[in-house]
Structure formats: C-alpha cells, structure tokens
Amino acid sequence: MENMERIKAHYGFTSGDVKNLMSLRPVMERYREEFVVEFYNFVKNFEEAEKFLKDEATVKRHQDALKVWFMNMFSGEYGNGYFTELEKVGFAHVKISLPAHYVNAAFHFVKTYTRRILHKEIQKHEEIAFLERSVEKILDINLDVFTSSYIEEEKKFFLSPKVESWLIQMSDRFSHGLNLILVLGLVLLGVMVIGLFGYDFMHIFQSGDFEKGLLSTLGSLLMLWVVIELMDTEVKHLRGGKLTVKIFINVALVAIIRKILIASLKHEEVEAQLSLVAALAVLGVVYWLIARVEK
Ligand code: HEM
C-alpha cells in the first residue's frame, strides 16, 4: 500500500503523531457515547438526512459504526488495515449517493468537537496545540480517503478517459454541425415558401378563381409562419435554450389546417374532412396540455 504511505508523508504524519493520538485514547473513550449524540444533533440539520438515515436499524448501525470509527482514530494503528477500512467507509457513502458536502460538513463538526474536548480536558496551552495538530492530521487524512472514494466513482470509464473525452467532444461538435445544417435547410425552405407564396398570390389574379387563390395563399402563409417558428426555435436551441415540444405540435397543426383548406377547395368526401377535423381537435388538446405543463 504505497498510496497510504504517500498520504501519511504528505500530511507530515510522524511517529510523534501516533504517540499523541494513542495518549488521547483514554480521554476520548469517555466521550465515545456523547460524540455520537452530538454528531447526530449536528447531522439532523441536513435537509435530506432522513432520506439516508431512513429507519431505526440504519441509525443504530451507523451510530455503532461511528463509535468504532471515532475510537480507531486513537488506536495507534494506522497501517494497511486502517486505510482499507477507511476506503470501505468512503465507498459505503458513495454507494448510497450521500452528497460529498454532507461528509465534508460532518468532518468540520468532528474537528470542532475534538478541539472542544482538548480544551476541556487538557490544561496546558502548548500541550493542547501540540495534540490538536495530530488530531487535525488524522482527521484530514480520513477526509482525504473519503473524498478519494467520490473521485474514484467519478473516474469510472468504459474505454479510457482520453478516448471517451475525445468521443464526447467529437459527437458534441458533430451534433452542433448537424444543427447548423438544419438551420441552413430551414433558410432554404423559407426561400422556397416565399416563392410559393408569390406564386399563389399571382394565381389569385391569373386564374380568376378568387376563393381558391385566397385559400392557397393563406396556406402558403401558414407554412411560412411555421418555418419562421422552426428557425426561431432552432436558433434559440443553438444558443443554449431548451427545445420545446410545442413547436412540433405547431407544425402538425399547421399541416392539418392547410390540408383542411385544400380539402374544402377540392370538395373532398365529408368523411375525409371530418377525420381531418378530428385530428385537428386532438392536436389542439395536446397543444393545450403541453402549454399548461410548460407554464
Ligand atoms: C464524519 C463523517 C462520517 C463518518 C466518519 C461516517 C462513518 C460511517 C461508517 C463507519 C459507516 C459504516 C460503513 C460500512 O458499512 O463499512 C457509515 C455508513 C453510513 N453512513 Fe456515515 N459517516 C459520516 C457521515 C455521514 C453522514 C453525514 C450521513 C448522513 C446524513 C451518513 C450516513 C451513513 C449511512 C446511511 C450509512 C450506511 C448505514 C448502513 O446502512 O449500514 N454518514 N458511515
């Protein structure tokens, strides 16, 4: 366990600290029970504490585990076994998706609490400062190992970090490129619909059939409106906005309205017209429901 020796070296954890912590064991033993009570008084302020400490059995298991953990800090044994145990505890928290912030805050509490004990139990100021340094070191080492568990969890990869990040970057770029092509397609479509609108408009006067000409022009105007809406949504999406489902219902609604207009011109069968009206009604209800939810 080269890792463990490295951590201890980084925190300047020496045999002097081992001695200090061991000397504190009898003092801390007296606070074992109170520590858990105070720890729980502190933790219960966390908004979601109950979600994790969900029943009496879990609380009991946690409290017993906490007492053992607390006392192990003053056991004088900081070898492989100690670190393996800490890693296990770290992963136990990761497994239940306990926010890392809760663990950090709880450590802050333990630091304050142990400081309080030292000030209460030890008279000499220099001795307090000396012992306090060792307690802080072991607490920081504990938090380091706990935090590593969270980082290890985040570091899980299927292939390799490099390949995965490259793949993600590439697909992100590709999807951005596709979105740009989509905008270009919509611009072209817009130009074509303007052409259609012009054609329909001219047709009003050329064909002499005023009603047909007007309805066709109205149909092409509706199409133009949909293209504008689609373009607007796409541009907003490219700028990081949310894509709304409503726009797709909009497109379907306009397509059906246009079909109804044409069907009325062609004097199609009543059944065909009725089915279009029914589809329009259904889409109308869906549109209304989505609009309500989005609000
Ligand atoms: C100084 C901070 C903490 C320490 C030292 C600590 C210690 C422990 C230990 C020793 C275990 C047993 C791990 C195992 O099964 O091997 C554990 C598990 C657990 N901890 Fe913590 N804990 C801390 C903070 C918290 C906080 C803030 C919460 C919740 C708000 C929490 C909730 C739990 C839960 C739910 C389990 C699993 C209990 C079970 O089902 O057996 N812990 N913790």
Query: How does CATH name the architecture of the largest domain?
Result: Orthogonal Bundle
What are the bound molecules? protoporphyrin IX containing FE
Q: Could you tell me the CATH topology label of the largest domain.
A: Globin-like
Count of individual helical segments:
11
Look at the helices and sheets and give the structural class.
Answer: mainly alpha
The H-level CATH homologous superfamily of the largest domain, spelled out, is Globins
- Oligomer, anyone? single chain
Proportion of residues in extended strands: under 5%
Number of domains: 2
Radius of gyration: 35 Å
What helical percentage do the residues reach? over 70%
The SSE order reads HHHHHHHHHHH
Q: Report the count of strand segments.
A: 0
* Average pLDDT: 89
**Mind summarizing the main beta sheet?**
none
Coarse shape: elongated
> Which stretches of 5+ consecutive residues score pLDDT under 50?
none
Q: Return the CATH class of the largest domain.
A: Mainly Alpha
Describe the SSE topology.
Blueprint: H1 2-10, H2 15-43, H3 49-52, H4 56-72, H5 80-95, H6 100-121, H7 125-154, H8 161-207, H9 210-238, H10 246-266, H11 270-294
The chain binds protoporphyrin IX containing FE.
Describe the 3D structure.
- There is one protein chain.
- The chain is an all-alpha fold and about 300 residues long.
- The protein folds into two domains: about 1-155, Globins (Globin-like, Orthogonal Bundle); about 160-295, no CATH class.
- It is about 85% helix and about 0% strand.
- The chain starts with a helix and ends with a helix.
- Protoporphyrin IX containing FE (HEM) binds near residues 43, 52, 93, 96 and 102.
